[in-house]
Input
Amino acid sequence: MSLTPPPAQAPSVDTAVSGLPFAAVIVGIRRTLIWTIVAGLVYATFMTGSKGLCPGGVDANGGFIDADGRSVDQAPLCVTLTLRPSVFVYAGIALIVLIALGRVARASDERAALRTLERAIQGAGLLVAIALVVSHVWFQLIPLDQFNSGSWSVFSPFPLGVIDVVTEPMTGS
Output
């Protein structure tokens, strides 16, 4: 038996404080915010498109002709369609983030909170992908020749993209 005290043991890694509690959740929230902002930027960048049609033209004498080549007194109408982002997709992304943060605040453990944040990133990405694909396909399927008649309408996938229609007379050159 020895009279010297036993050597002090170093604290194990499990009992040492390694940072803030739930630091992984805070990192997950930051990651979710960054990826949803990136999703919004991708949506804004790729949700653009335009197409147009000017049926007819100008004849050799400087007068206007219609789509069938007949001389007309008035300039034919040119139609331009423009696809642009919808505010509803941005609102959808924000809603996904807010719902995820609410669920993280009520999560029973760190693993459930991180899983919720990961699903929020996936949901925002899926929303943007669906909005881009559906809007661009729908936009390309709109026939421009329907605008030659007196009445027309454009039905778009309402919350996913906005289609602006501009009709103006052709300018002679």
